[in-house]
Amino acid sequence: MVDTLKYYEALAEQLAARGVDVGAVKQKLHVQKIELPSWSFGNAGTRFQVFSWPGAARDIHERVADAAFVNRLTGVAPSIAIHIPWDKTEDYSALKQEAASQGISIGAVNPNWFQEPQYKLGSLCSPDAGAREEAIAHGVECIEVMKAADATLLSVWLADGTNYTGQDDMRERKHRLEHGLAELYKEIPDGKRMLVEYKFFEPAFYSTDLPDWGTSYAMCLKLGPKAEVLVDTGHHAHGTNIAQIVMFLLDEGRLGGFHFNSRKYADDDLIVGTVNPLELFEIFYELVRSEDKAANVAYMLDQNYNIEAKIEAAIISVLNCQAAYAKALLVNRAKLSEAQAAGDVLGAHRLMMEAYETDVRPLLAKVREEKGIDPDPIAALKASGYEKKIAEERGTSGSGWS
Ligand code: PSV
Ligand code: MN
């Protein structure tokens, strides 16, 4: 790998000549935060084979240790999202302390409404009143977890939907959804938030009860100010302009957070920024553009590393988010506004591409050096011996679905 740090001065000079305030850009990069999902450190993944990785985390304690390690190397991943019951533990306040002692906090709490037999026909929207009650009870249990772990976000994603025309009454399902979400919303303490995630298909294929951002947004408006929309980048139809959705939700004050990942076909859950880095840049540009409204946005990853080394994949995901943000910060917005107002279609486009095509690696290396960490987190990982150590300690477990 090239030692990018040595190119920093040249880049800083070039950026200054372009009118970029390099100091201000670095300051923003210093405080960027990305949240890691606990589930990406264990053996999990596709509908087909789950390939085991030597050293994969076997419980929440090992997942916390891995997330804390990724934070130490990148300097910008200070929290871990948890999924209940996958990350169930006796004492969540102790879990919070355990995480804090390693320099991280517990981030979003994700209820799991898709792996119990009673959810066959749905959870909050199920035609079965008993299943709906259990789903609400599980949500309330997760809100208790939030309180104990000092987490601020309840991240709601439902696998609810139907597979065949006529299978269930779609209007009734909408009403059940409104009722179930409202029951949970009542329990959200002040100062904490509920994020409502949408997905246009899967596991149901005929109808999905929260299929798009507009439905999530409508639900949030009904619920109240503590409810906001979560955008998972893998949950859109091809051709959807995700940056525009981000702009709209930000402008309306209802963008709660992201689940970043990449997809080529559907919800592929690949490393963010690998399939369409331009799209990731466009999303970050809208966040920079509406910075005044983006203060509470939660930047989370939602990915599954099935064939790749999990720690390295988590680091690359973080680095790709940093790069997209850094590039977005380089857009000359004053000139862009001028070009837009003048109807200079290609001049405006060129200004975006000029920022996008900048090699920001030296800038990010410099920020890391200033933070007192290794400018090259992948080199630091390789030198650390961490993967070898966890492979020896934890061994190989959990391959396949049996
Ligand atoms: C569903 O596809 C999803 O994006 C939701 O966020 C879940 O919580 C997560 O993946 C893990 O299954
Ligand atoms: Mn998601």
**CATH class category name:** Alpha Beta
Total helices: the number is: 15
Bound molecule types: alpha-D-psicofuranose, manganese (II) ion
Percent range for β-strand residues: 5-15%
* Overall mean pLDDT: 97
Side by side, the strands of the main sheet go 4-6-8-9-10
Question: Percent of residues in helical segments?
Answer: 40-55%
Largest β sheet strand count, sense and barrel closure: 5 strands, parallel
Q: Which runs of at least 5 residues are low in confidence (pLDDT < 50)?
A: none
> How would the global form be characterised?
globular
Topology, number of strands: 10
| SS-based class | alpha/beta
What is the oligomeric state here? Answer: single chain
Nearest-angstrom radius of gyration? 21 Å
Give the helices and strands as they follow along the chain.
Answer: HHEHEHEHEEHEEHEHEHEHHHHHH
CATH topology: TIM Barrel
Number of domain modules: 1
Distance between the termini: 40 Å
CATH architecture assignment name: Alpha-Beta Barrel
What's the CATH H-level superfamily name?
Answer: Divalent-metal-dependent TIM barrel enzymes
Task: Write a structural description.
The chain has 402 residues and is of the alpha/beta class. It has a single domain (32-326), classed as TIM Barrel. 46% of the residues lie in helices and 11% in strands. It has 15 helices and ten strands. The protein has helices at residues 8-17, 22-30, 60-74, 92-101, 129-149, 170-187, 213-223, 242-251, 277-289, 310-329, 333-341, 345-356, 361-371, 377-384, 386-394; strands at residues 35-37, 79-84, 105-111, 153-156, 161-162, 193-197, 207-208, 227-232, 255-260, 298-301. The strands form three sheets. The protein has a five-stranded parallel beta sheet with strand order 4-6-8-9-10. It has a three-stranded parallel beta sheet with strand order 1-2-3, covered by helices on one side. It has a two-stranded antiparallel sheet with strand order 5-7. Helix 4 (92-101) links the parallel strand 2 (79-84) and strand 3 (105-111). Helix 5 packs parallel to helix 6 (170-187), helix 8 packs parallel to helix 9 (277-289) and helix 9 (277-289) crosses helix 10. The longest helix has 21 residues, at 129-149. The protein is globular. The chain starts with 7 loop residues before the first helix and ends in an 8-residue tail after the last helix. The structure holds alpha-D-psicofuranose and manganese (II) ion. Residues 157, 197, 232, 259, 302 line the site of manganese (II) ion.
